[in-house]
Amino acid sequence: MNETMGQIIRRLRKERGMTQDELAELLGVTFQAVSKWENETGLPDISQVVPLARLFGVSTDTLFGISGINDSDEVKKIINDAQKCLSCPLDSVGMLNKYRVLQEGLKHFQNNTILLRECLETGLALANPETDIYDAKHAKAVYQDCVRYANLVISYSENASDIMRAHMIMVMLHSANGNFKEARAHIVNFPSQADFNIHVMYAIYSHWKKDGFEIGSCQYAIMHYIEGTLRSVTRLAEAFVASGEYKSAEKTIETTFEIIDCIFNEDEIKPPLHYRDSGDLYLLLAEAYLKDGDREKALDSLERMVNYDTVDYQKIGSDTRTSSPLLGAVSHDFYIKRIDRYNYLTSKLNNNRFDELKNYKRFLTLLQRAENAKQ
User: Fold this and answer.
1) Can you give the pLDDT at residue 32?
2) Are 6 and 34 in contact (CB under 8 A)?
């Protein structure tokens, strides 16, 4: 039996944990009006239908009970179609096409927080000058879109992680565009204590419930702390390079690799933790050595990168796990690189940062190994 509009409004309101009073306040109407809608003794004014749909993150068709497909299924299809636009290696053309598909989806599911989140992540890749797929032509427009999307996520999402991620993206994009006042306004929303996440909460929950998941929850929490530490270390090393403090950058990255080797010392294959959002740690280390005048150590770093990408990675399968007691429960996804490694490996070596090495026999050998790996 099809739901009436009143039943749909009541269901959507309860699914989002709202009272009638809260919904009324957000819409600027009385709670008696909301009560009449849900009791089917009245209907929303036509001018209130779009605001209602936006508030619930659904299409207007859903409110009228004429949506031919479940919203969540349709949103998943939009995201899957958008993902198909990407190519290997990743480039700005494919990413922009993905972004356009997601934007088109938002026209039908206005303020859907899942689509808004996807648009934000894709927009960050296109509008952040520090990414490899930065799109200078469209960056300003995408940045302006992201400001709007972030505000909507912060206003409508009930997921704390989504809200904090929206703040984070705004800090990055506002700062990159010189809008420091706006960036600081988002920074103040972050907690000063960061030793918690969803897995820590599950560990506490499981500790008392004794459901057997406490160890796994702790290990997943540690994985996120390692990732967070590596992000901060990478940014520190990049700052050292940009400031001309090459030896500090070298020591920072080499120490990081020592930590990784220590954690995964029982494993034949280390997880690809040198892959970072802003680039490859081996590349950054090679750049630091090169700017410090040490070509041989720069080549050593590039060789270590090639060794990992062309040999060890091929051994990783769906059952690959680390032997580390710190991370034993973490799934094999910890090992999986997100984009085609060989095409990307070739493009990394061909970066103009290493132009002065391109006549060296050792460098040409590395490049040939990368090319051969694509066969």
Assistant:
1) 87
2) no
